[in-house]
Design goal:
Number of strands of chain B: 0
Strand content of chain C: under 5%
Radius of gyration of chain C: 17 Å
Number of domains of chain B: 1
Chains: A mainly alpha, B mainly alpha, C mainly alpha
Shape of chain B: elongated
Number of strands of chain C: 0
Largest sheet of chain B: none
Distance between the termini of chain C: 49 Å
Strand content of chain B: under 5%
Mean pLDDT of chain C: 89
Number of domains of chain C: 1
Helix content of chain B: over 70%
Order of helices and strands of chain C: HHH
Mean pLDDT of chain B: 89
Number of helices of chain B: 3
Largest sheet of chain C: none
Low-confidence stretches of chain C: none
Order of helices and strands of chain B: HHH
Distance between the termini of chain B: 49 Å
Oligomer: heterotrimer
Amino acid sequence: METINLLIWSLDSLLGLSLLWLAWRALTTPDLFKAVVLFIAFGLLITLVWVRLDAPDVALAEAAIGAGLTGALLLSALARLDSTHSDPASVYSGKTRVNNESAGPESIHWWPFSLLVLVSSGLGFIILSMPVAFMGLSPEVSDQLANSGVENPVTAVLLNFRAYDTLLEMVVLLIALLGVWSLGGGVKHKEPFPGTVLDILTRLLTPVLILVSAYLLWVGAHAPGGAFQAGSVLGAAGVLLMLSGWQLQMNIPVLLIRLILLAGPFAFIAMAVITIMIEGQLLQFPVAQAGLLILLLETFATLSIGATLAALFLGGQTWKNDEESL
Amino acid sequence: MTIIDYISVILLVAGAFFFLAGTLGLLRFPDVYTRLHALTKADNLGLGLTVTGLILQLESWLVAGKLLLIWILILLAGASVAHLIAKGALRRKVRLWKQ
Amino acid sequence: MTTPILYALTGIGLFSLGLYSLIVQAHLLRKILAINIMGSGVFLVLIALAKRSGEIPDPVPHAMVITGIVVAVSATALALSMMLKLNMETHHAELPDDQQG
């Protein structure tokens, strides 16, 4: 089957080279808008690579968060960046506003370049001297999978075996949001009426997105999916609503928003305390109820992640009652 | 390979051909509006053919329904985004290419 | 050169590209893009090495990468809002050391 091997090898090298080329173009093109769009394309290409490497959960998370939400954040920041300048050039003209040190081939900076060659050759040597087949933690996970309450090994690792990491991750999301809020006072963006097409699209898509999010949450127990993917789809729904000028932050009471944002971390912390009291070990789920507990944790986590991601997109813009502090 | 497999392969190759044609349009057409036109039309059709080719390989109607749903959503999103980009370009007074 | 090793080397290439851009370029948005690309490179190395475990890849690096993606987006959001704040105050998009004038 020599031709199949050659085909697979050429497909893999094509994907790898395109990744490197896209990354290089995204980092060195003089126009910032083009750079961001190329970065979004890079995110989609790396989603393909995750599928190729048998990592469907990671592919779902990357497509929703890495390509989608990060792209939206970057574009939104780019729009707000130039509007605070008194520069007459429009946002999407050819040049960035200030000189950047984007290096063309004629002006490679030698010290960073030699550092780079050193680091990459060292890492490459390490990679090449690693064993070609290595079992890692797969056997241990497969052995304990029956006791974990779910059938998807990645969900089992995320929400049962390494639930402590997920607890900390919920807190990291919260801290990032607190940082963004404490910087405060974004440019007041008055959304114009979005136009018929975007309006209708939002009305059609938001229920679908909520449904897809619930589906991903449910199916994460036995197929690729889970809380993070579901949460990011909810966050995308929030972003879509905000882009259509729905002024979510004016219509929902602040207390409700704060409660939803805290629901995820608090559910994890409450579960941690309960398991310490009952089982004596941090986040050690009883085998019989593990599936139910994981679903419960995942539901709160989904709501929290969705709300946090949407709030991160909104940025420092204040909620109802601008005068009272958050 | 059975006859179903052959039909699947033909449909998938046809879908890939339409994607290629759309990308060629993206690269070669003179302005934003013509590029959008080529891209959305060709990509929607290409995706439809690809989805049909994949559905022939499935055993369950549920998964086929999911694939069709994906196609419809991409149709919807693609058309709307093309409209939004064209409207944005018009607002920025990007000129239409005249022969 | 098996598939996992090939992708791991690509990941190192991405990491190096991102690192070079981070050091060399002055505009803050480009630095943020560079950090994201470095992150993607690291994730690629992790997932590629996880594929060495045969047909069922090792799920622990997958979980770590999903965590990493979420942390990366929150760090990006925070970094972008800091950049916008700096931009609002000083009307420059670079740190004071790197400004051209």
